[in-house]
Fold each of these.
Amino acid sequence: MYWGIKKMMSIIALSFLLITFLNFRAGRSKALKIRENTTIHSLPEYYGYYTAFWFLIPVTLIGISWLFFSESLITSFVLSNLQKEIVNFNEIQTLNFINGFKNLSEGRNITGEISLLLKEAASLYSYFSTVSNTLLIFACLSIGLFGFYISINKVSSVFQARNAIEKYINYFFLASTCIAILATAGILFSVVFEAIRFFGLVDLDDFLFGLKWSPQMAIREDQVGSSGAFGAIPLFVGTILISIIALLVAVPIGLMNAIYLSEYSPSNVRAYAKPMLEILAGIPTVVYGFFAAITVAPFLRGLGEFVGLSISSESALGVGLVMGIMIIPLVSSLSDDVISAVPQSMRDGSLGLGATKSETIKKVILPAALPGIVGGVLLAASRAIGETMIVVMAAGLSAKLTINPLDAVTTVTVQIVTLLVGDQEFDSPKTLAAFALGLTLFVFTLVLNYFALRIVKKYREQYE
């Protein structure tokens, strides 16, 4: 039954698209008939788009609203009809009951005995879902056809269809921008809210300046190994150490690649070298994690034994090297684009004054391209700071305060993953600490971007 409903909804969606196309044809045809006798303001296609939009947009808005609210409303109707039978259920039993009748209604396997109450709830859920789908189809058709009726009557020789379509597109762009801003604000506020709860349990100074990280909270007074220390300095130091190593690898190699590809390489070499280099950006980070854990770490450990150094299997050096390889395409590709965008007149002027090619690159091209290069480096730095999979697979889990790249360190992202793995209750400092770490990482990245923008603005004004 569940798959039958899915198939039916797919057919209905295709039918609405077909109706939208027919509305487009109707608006366009009416505009063409009008054009036979007089001039019209816009091309006939714009009138077709106008009638199609007046059908499609209301239908889309109703469908999106239905997707957001129908599930909770149907569940509420089912529970209200069975209020007497489930009055003694606690919160966990109610959630299990809801999942049970939904799975039963959708034809999924259910472990254990299926009670009569569960069957009745599944039947009610299927009934209300059918009613909801029917009402959705009726509402979409009614409002969509009403919109088509209004729009088709507006099609005339004096109606400015092109202006209307452009206005709707501007509204769409504005709505997209607002959605992006609201999504960012929602993510930020959710993290801030949970972080405030954490700082209500743990002192802010202890978190920001504490030198010991051990978020194991004691359940009993006599429990061993549960210190509950939330000093995040070791995590910040480990994150910065690995990021610096990654940038020391990526920035020189990426920048030299960009200079060679944009200034020295023949066109046929560039045509093959740049795509091959950018393949690195398409490799999943889990592959880099395997490479760091299985290849790089044992190689560094063996090399250290050969020269008499003790290098940890989870050293910051190994993780930083692999992460640096991963972000080379970011630095190289962005730097290549901004160097290539430097006006040829600046190169010709420098060479005409007697400067060599290398002097032109050092004295003219790189300073002029510096804002874009800084932007690429900062983007790579943000990518390194926020990287999770490589450090989870190849870095250490224990927080150690050290700046020795040969030691095992942990990072903020590793600890966030560790704290949120498994079934967690979001009411203890151990779990809430992940949100505090996330907020701190966000603020740090924001400050980093602020200074980058200041640098970019300064040099852009100098060379524009």
Amino acid sequence: MNKQLLQAGCALALAAACGAAQAQVAGTISVRAGFTHIAPQTKSGDLSEPSFPGTKVDVGSATALTGGINYMLTDHWALDLPIGLPFKHSFYGDGAIDGVGKLGQTKVVPATLFLQYRFAEANAKFRPYLGLGLTYSKFFKNRSTAALSAVTGGTPANPTTASIDNKWGVTPQVGFVWNFSDRWFLDAAYFKSFIKTTAHLSSGQSIDMRLNPDVIAIGIGYRF
């Protein structure tokens, strides 16, 4: 009888240990892979003189393969680091130059570190969360088009080029984790980055842009 009780106790202890390892408890590390879509909600200033009054720009959306690493500080608090390929955004004429087409493109890596609070119990199948992140947006590989040169007085021999300031921004986030097996899960989130930057042209002109993109990220993850 004592032997049976000991075996039953060991089995329960092992089951409890396995359950803890598979739940989102303190010390748990998880990774995920999926897609992220960034849709800038552009509010452009006017291109500095010399230019037509009301010369503005708009910024197109972009989607890229992304993922992330998550570490549970406690059963409810977590640090989350999204990672992925750079996003490629195109710039278009707007305002007084609406209709001139594509002015250029840039690649951007929006590096963000989130602090998240996850609701419900650690072993719950569905856990909504709120997050707040600090984002550093690095712009690189800027390309310009003949349309930009035409608008700003560039020539084929001396085309107008552009550079964009790297900037910090604040990024609130809302999302959820759905655990569809012991270790595999779906992570989906919406977040909004508040970022303002300035583009500088080789012509000596500049233009301020408030990007403030809406971001949707979806990934399939594995919990260690």
Amino acid sequence: MVLAYWAAGFCAVATSIQLASIGVAWVRCGRRTSPSAMPNPAPPVTLLRPVCGLEPFVRETLGSSFRLNYAQYEIIFCVARADDPAVPIVARLIDANPQMPARLLIGDQRIGANPKLNNLLKGWEAARHQWIVIADSNVLMARDSLQRLLGRWRDDTGIVCSMPLGSRPGNFWAELECAFLNTLQARFQYVSEALGFGFAQGKTMLFRRDLVERAGGIGALAAETAEDAATTKMVRALGRRVHLVDHPFDQPLGRRRAAEVWARQLRWARLRRASFPLLFLPEILVGGAMPSLALGLAATEYGVGVTGAVALFLLTWSGAEAALAWRAGWRLSPRLMAALVVRDLLLPVLWVAAWIGDGFVWHGNGMRAQRRIDPTQRPEFPDMTRRCYRIMLAALPTRKHSEPIR
């Protein structure tokens, strides 16, 4: 009976956290960037778009670079190899838009294990402007994308990001990717920002060059396998914050294979585990699978119908996410409801898989999720995690440290 009591308590706490996080995202998604928040006059911007291979809707996503409603910006496309199949597409887009200052730079300058960062280095060095936006090739940029990014810059900002929103899924597996990207990952990014320890997302990032140079230059982002993890730590080291756009940019998905979705989520999970291991630990509790199991156990002990209790729980859990998707204008369909349940069943498996390996493949490049550790630097944790770490150290009388973690 004691076990049933704790199981019911865990389910209640998990549900409260789920609803509270949805409430935070609900309020956050209702914001509108005020035109007065934009720098005046609007500064010129360099838009860097790393390109590697052919992706769904690539002509449309790259073509959106030329349709931004912004007075002064340049576009630099970066490709590692001249034989990349996307090169002819980029060349045709540039030829079709002679009114725009756009260039295609080809070549690879290796500064680390991250091929995207190696590809971008030449573009960063060639950029003419102080404000630089890096947007992946599969991001569909809205006409006011630059206004959305610049409008979120504050005095304490180190970077402004837009997480990707899955859209236009062509089959169930793409719908499953929407379930991961939108009401789960985008939601928790908004919650993290609201709690004061937001983290960068590498799909679309607005940098100010002088801040990056102060932190050691673009090469400093090679300190981690993932450039967004390195960016997060760089921003925190500068004493600044990560801010998010009010309305994120779409990533049209098309059709997906189950193996593709799994491989992408496993890659991201392993990178999170490698870069922020203490923050990754509680991810085992994310999603409805563990609370459902706990509720089923409690219902059995208390003599309540297990099927009815779990069904009502899942309806509440997934229904709240569906309400958030409706509120925010994100992808919502009957097929998505099934995808939410499948996603939650996969989350514990994904968490375990992230701990039992380091390897992954990104655009044909075999890589490992690891970070380069500088022994002269102390680990960078958000304030909440740092406090927990100190409490754990205090509970271990045999461990002594010459100085506190700062």
